[in-house]
Each structure stands twice: as structure tokens, then as C-alpha cells.
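Section 3.1: Structural characterization of target chains.
Under the original work plan, the team committed to producing a structural model for every single-chain target entering the pipeline before any wet-lab resources were allocated. The record below documents one such target. The sequence was received from the expression subgroup and is listed exactly as submitted; it comprises 407 residues.
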Amino acid sequence: MILEMKVPSPGESITEVEIAEWLVSDGDYVEKDQAIAEVDSDKATLELPAEESGIITLKAEVGDAVAVGAVVCLIDTSASKPEGAAKSEEKPAEKKPEVKAVAEQKTEAKPEKTSYASGSASPAAKKILAEKDLDASSIKGTGKDGRITKEDAVKAVPSMGTPTGGSRGESRTKLSMLRRKVAERLVAAKNETAMLTTFNEVDMSAIFALRNQYKEDFKDKHNVGLGFMSFFTKAVIRALQMYPSVNSMIDGKEMISYDFCDISIAVSGPKGLMVPVIRNAENLTFRGVESEVKRLAIRAREGEITVDEMTGGTFTITNGGVFGSMLSTPIINPPQSAILGMHNIVERPIARDGAIAIAPIMYVALSYDHRIIDGKESVGFLVAVKEALESPEELLMDNNVKKALEL
């Protein structure tokens, strides 16, 4: 019996996928539920498992865009499983002559070096070319019988590259469907929103002190680190509740506002930027936020994140600081209306109580859609985030650190 394997729907609104990689070869025997391919959608990279055991016949090439529901391979379920490793032992023998043939082709195809000049260079031209470290064979002479004149040598310039003969190679790689979709969304965000960015700075001293005091106890009890993301997520939730228009988005002629906070966390994955969502983050404790951030980040980096885990989100936090960014203007993640950019933490001189002090400072940026978020609200939102981060014990922990950290 021949089973037709069709592309399953990875999620709502996705109509096609791209074959990113075949994990098996044409003619291989595959087991049921074995991963046979990786497919890219415009939201994530997913594995395609075999629906039955049997001999597989591939019907699509790597890089092909395949519609959802289209046949990508056939599985002969009546075929018996080969014994031992006989099948795998045949492959190297088949490949060896192929490699040799390619090598022979390359040797035969190597062209002889030709000269543009049919004549030689004059003594004066030779001297100038030697000073310029140029090969006479690359110069087209204008003298009699193609002779390279002094004027030809004076005018001669190196071809693209350097006189030292450095490499000038290049390569082309097709962008994955995920990367192309990200590019489209970023351009759309710039073109279709009235995006502005406001900045502020945060003195991270209070958070440093809390983490230094409680991070070991927190990790021992909850098996997860007490990072900066839980403080920022909590601060953002508080600010969103104070300024609900920042937790809104435009839908045609209407503005949709949400009474929940689904926080998208930008993560750099092997296939590009991914933005998994922490659902109802307003209901999570510090431990809950840190556990969810860790879980989603691992799944994204290992390519196991699902479309559902990246769909939605009412506000995004991105941390360029992990790469050393001092300051940036993050791009809104549509259809959301705002995004908070975190950056690196650097010790800087600040004025504190009328004196100069050295403190760990982070610059923060809020990019927002000015169509529905006014300057007063955007600045107020970022100030609220700053206040919460600089006074976390009072504004984020109700003056009870151990209870907030569940210690």
C-alpha cells in the first residue's frame, strides 16, 4: 500500500510551508513517527513525522514552497524493513566514483590563462606596471599589435579587489520562509505605523542588591535563576495596567484594548528572531515568569517552538543587551502597538543625593505607534517602568521580598 503524506496545517492563516531539510534520503526505510523533514512556515520551523513505517519516496526538493495539503512524499507501507546495515554500506561505494568524476571534470574544465594583450609591454610600461604590482596580461594594450604603451600602464588600475590579491569570493543562500516573513513584517511595521521611540535610563542598583542577596536561595528552591526578565516583565505589567492604551492595537477603524497581558519575549533562535508569548503574565509570580521565560527560550533555540506559542501577544520585550547593545530603537511587532528595548548595563557616573556616584545604568527604549499612543502616555509608561525597576521592593513586591520570591 502506498501512503501519500501531505503537509499538515501548522496553524491558522498559514497556507504554505518550505522544505528546509530532508532528514532522510529517497529510498530509505523510515519508522512511524520518525522525523523525516524540517519545514519552515512564516512563523516557525517544525518537524514532519512519518505517518507509517515503510520505504519513502520524496516528492519535493529542499527549498520548495509546498501548499498545505499537498503531497510531499510517498511511503510504501508494504515494504519490509531491511536487515542489518546492508543498505547503509552501499552508499559510500556509490559516492566514491561520483566524487572522482567531479574532480576529473574540474581538472579538465580549468581554463588556460589568457592575455588581453597580443603584444608585449614597452620597457617604460613594464616599470610602471611593476610599481603598481599589476600583471601585464590583465592590461589591454592600445599600441601597435596590442603593445602596452606607457600611457596604458599609467591609466591601468587594479580590477575589483586589492593589489595584494585578496580573496573576492561570494556565496548566495536562500532566505528561509521564516526570515522572509520577519523581513516583510519589519518593513510593514515601518511603513504602516507612525512609529516613534522615547528613551530613559534606569539605575539598576536596587535590583542588583536583591539578586545578590536572594538569587542562590531562589535557585535552590525553584531550580531556575532569578534574572532581570522577571523584574522587567513585572514592571511592564504594572505600567500596562496604568496606561491601557499601550496594551492596545488597531483593527481597521477600531482600537482593541485588552484586560490581560500576553508578553512576547524576543529570542534569537537558529532560524532567526522568534517571539514566544508568556500568556496572562499578570497572573504569574517571579518564579512563574522566570520558569516560563526559560522554557520558551529553550524551545525556541532548539527549534521546538510551536506556532501557537508564538501567536498573539499584546506587548513585546526585547533584550539587545545580551549582545552588548548600548542603545537602539526597537521595531514594533505588529499588530502590537509598542515594544520595550532593554540594553546592556554599564557602570556610569550619576547624581545621587547631590553627589556623584557610580551606578549600574541601563538605557531603555519604548517604540510605540503614535496613531493610538500619545506622547504623554508613552513617556508616562516608560517612567512607570523606570520607577518600578528602581524601587522593586516597594512597587513590585509589596515590601515583602521573601513572599514575592516564594522563599
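The domain at 2-76 is CATH 2.40.50.100 (OB fold (Dihydrolipoamide Acetyltransferase, E2P)).
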